[in-house]
Write a structure and sequence with these properties.
Elements lengths: L1 E8 L3 H10 L10 E3 L2 E5 L11 E6 L9 H5 L5 E4 L2 E4 L4 H13 L6 E5 L12 E5 L4 E6 L2 E6 L10 H8 L7 E4 L8 H6 L3 E6 L2 H13 L6 E5 L13 E6 L9 H7 E14 L5 H11 L3 E15 L2 E12 L1
Parallel strand pairs: 6-7, 11-12, 11-14, 12-13, 14-15
Antiparallel strand pairs: 1-3, 1-4, 2-3, 5-6, 7-8, 9-10, 15-17, 16-17
């Protein structure tokens, strides 16, 4: 059927689809198709499409209505996908098993279904999992044109932060020196390197750094990433006054590393500082901590106060984008 679509190169397909989805413009009744290196995304309202995107009429098939887990269960379960691993979060093991069986009966793409069995714990920030379906907890997650191999039993990874990671990556300029202080498997470091920066990435979890190196090769940026399985505090002397950009995505304890961040910062450096704070003062504690660590050696300018997501009742995961300029 001939319908209005946004046309884009395949390499820009996920970013374009996400932009349209955020604006609620993707037409759900039609399939997205790829034709000769071009992706066609059906849209609901051509007048609302951003001016920088191209609208074209293209022949696309009507979408078959998929069977969802809710169709099988009679209620809407909560779950999230990480590659071909589906994650549920249920206190009742029987309910978790029912949801896992329904996921298999549905059209959700899944090889493994797991239930969270613990909170994030320890220095390596991993969880325990109950494997309900399948065997392998290793998967490949894709976001914004990049691939990340990982094993959820060995590393921490949150697919919910994809939009936030992309927000940061869009600020990167070619030729920067960027330091990811708690890098995990590379969801910040790899796209930042792909944006043209020279990246140093550290993590205390050796398994995460092994995956980061593999992911750097997967995404063709291994020549722009230096990865260390180490505590960033032990590396600061080697990279003092080096960084133009610092990513501090360790929201429960990033404050403990601010002195190290200041050592790493160059004469003009942007810090992306993640924090978890009460709704009554989401940004004040982080801003005060940064000023205490950086002043008077640096002028401190808070460029963005950004709420990433709700974390718990009355608590929020937030980010401060802060520019340090040496006096």
């Amino acid at each position: 059927m001939e319908v209005p679509c946004v046309r884009a190169p395949v390499a820009e397909g996920e970013e374009t689809r996400q932009e349209l989805a955020d604006a609620d413009l993707v037409a759900p009744e039609f399939d997205i198709v790829v034709d000769d290196g071009t992706i066609y995304i059906p849209v609901t309202d051509t007048d609302a499409v951003p001016d920088d995107l191209t609208v074209a009429v293209h022949d696309v098939p009507e979408r078959r209505t998929p069977t969802t887990p809710a169709d099988v269960l009679g209620f809407e379960p909560t779950y999230e996908r990480l590659g071909d691993v589906v994650i549920v979060d249920e206190d009742d093991p029987e309910r978790a098993r029912r949801i896992a069986d329904a996921i298999l009966e549905s059209d959700v793409r899944a090889k493994t279904v797991v239930n969270r069995a613990s909170k994030v714990k320890g220095e390596t920030r991993v969880r325990d999992w109950d494997v309900l379906v399948g065997e392998s907890t290793e998967t490949v997650h894709r976001e914004y044109g990049h691939e990340f191999a990982l094993d959820i039993t060995e590393v921490y990874f949150s697919p919910r932060l994809a939009t936030e990671r992309h927000r940061v990556v869009e600020q990167v300029e070619t030729g920067e020196n960027a330091f990811d202080m708690f890098a995990g498997v590379g969801p910040y470091a790899i796209p930042i390197a792909d944006a043209g920066a020279e990246v140093v990435a550290t993590d205390i979890n050796e398994a995460a750094i092994d995956y980061l190196r593999e992911n750097a090769r997967r995404n063709g940026v291994e020549d722009r990433i230096t990865a260390h399985a180490d505590d960033v505090r032990d590396l600061a002397a080697d990279y003092e006054n080096w960084a133009d950009r610092l990513v501090m995505n360790l929201p429960h304890s990033a404050q403990e590393f601010l002195d190290t961040a200041v050592r790493l910062a160059g004469d003009d450096c942007t810090i992306h500082y993640y924090d978890i704070q009460h709704e009554d003062d989401r940004f004040g504690p982080g801003e005060h901590a940064i000023r205490d660590a950086a002043e008077p050696d640096y002028d401190v300018t808070v460029e963005t106060r950004h709420t990433v997501r709700s974390y718990a009742p009355h608590e929020y995961n937030v980010c401060l984008d802060v520019r340090l300029t040496r006096d």
